[in-house]
Design goal:
By secondary structure, the chain is an alpha+beta fold. The protein has four helices and 19 strands. Strand 4 and strand 5 form a beta hairpin.
């Protein structure tokens, strides 16, 4: 009768159990790879230049941006491209397209037979000044450059707050509503708060002339509400003008269906040049991402605020 071997050979190869250190190393590697993928494909850290989004975000503060625009809602903070659309073209009966610059004989109003007219009521968008600015290089990646190859790159992107999304019903010139706005039948409301001292002159946007840094000064502060969204804004005494919307010459309420995103800056004075008041509806293709997290900033820029309030905080 053969003798049975009672000794058990140690497992080899795939049968060998992994030690806790091996499992920990594997978890760290997988977590690091997931973090790198998320950082490259979904989220990025960018720095804000300018005070167009004060007091929510001040000059020099860093934020986390989630790429894409698939879940943008009212109240969200977004990064958008403020570049004006390409110059309009006239259509020739001979199926030839040319711009007004190429044909000095073309009527500026397109009155020639068979030509489409430019809307003369829509104001010129002009030069974009310093508001809440994000350097383009911080947002663009290789996939974006390939996708947008052939388009002229803007000097800088802007940051603003979404008040209406495509398809919403927006009413302008509403009496007793903040900015004269009503979104889907809900009036935009404001509640005044104590004035706040802020340093509102920081380093300029890339390519713009330097400005002197001002000392803290009092600014009118209010809490604005639209539905479930509530956020602080710096008020202005100037009545809102909607040159970019090309609204009819009517002093009463004007109800329109949103063709794009209605985006405004929280600092109503600084942002007037570059948000929907000047640019009109912002198309979805111009949105680059949503700001979801504010990182540590400079407490000295807001002397009246609790220093902890300028640190880590979810947005909006």
């Amino acid at each position: 009768m053969a003798r049975r071997d009672t000794h058990t050979r140690p497992p080899q190869g795939r049968d060998r159990p992994k030690t806790w250190s091996t499992k920990l190393a594997a978890a760290v590697l997988l977590g690091g790879a997931a973090l790198v993928f998320t950082r490259a494909a979904l989220a990025t850290v960018i720095q804000i230049h300018g005070d167009g989004m004060a007091p929510t975000i001040l000059d020099g503060e860093s934020v986390v941006m989630m790429r894409g625009s698939w879940r943008i809602e009212s109240g969200d903070l977004v990064v958008y491209d403020p570049s004006p659309p390409p110059p309009p073209y006239f259509e020739d009966p001979g199926d030839r397209l040319w711009s007004p610059e190429d044909d000095r004989l073309a009527s500026p109003r397109g009155t020639g037979e068979g030509r489409r007219a430019i809307d003369p009521a829509r104001g010129s968008q002009g030069e974009l000044h310093n508001t809440a600015v994000v350097e383009v290089e911080q947002v663009e990646t290789n996939w974006a450059r390939v996708r947008d190859r052939g388009r002229a790159a803007p000097r800088s992107f802007r940051v603003g707050r979404v008040l209406a999304v495509p398809g919403d019903t927006v009413t302008f010139h509403v009496v007793d509503a903040a900015l004269g706005l009503s979104i889907n039948g809900r009036r935009l409301t404001q509640k005044l708060d104590d004035p706040i001292r802020l340093v509102l002159a920081g380093k300029p946007a890339p390519g713009e002339e330097a400005r002197e840094v001002s000392s803290p000064r009092l600014r009118a502060l209010a809490w604005e509400s639209l539905g479930d969204s509530r956020y602080p804004v710096l008020m202005t005494t100037v009545a809102p003008h909607w040159e970019g919307m090309a609204l009819p010459e009517d002093l009463g309420p004007i109800e329109v269906r949103a063709e794009g995103y209605l985006i405004l800056a929280d600092n109503r004075d600084e942002g007037a040049c570059c948000d929907s008041r000047a640019l009109g509806w912002i198309p979805k293709a111009k949105l680059w991402g949503e700001l979801v997290l504010r990182l540590a900033g400079d407490p000295g820029a807001s002397p009246d605020s609790d220093p902890r309030s300028r640190g880590l905080a979810w947005l909006p």
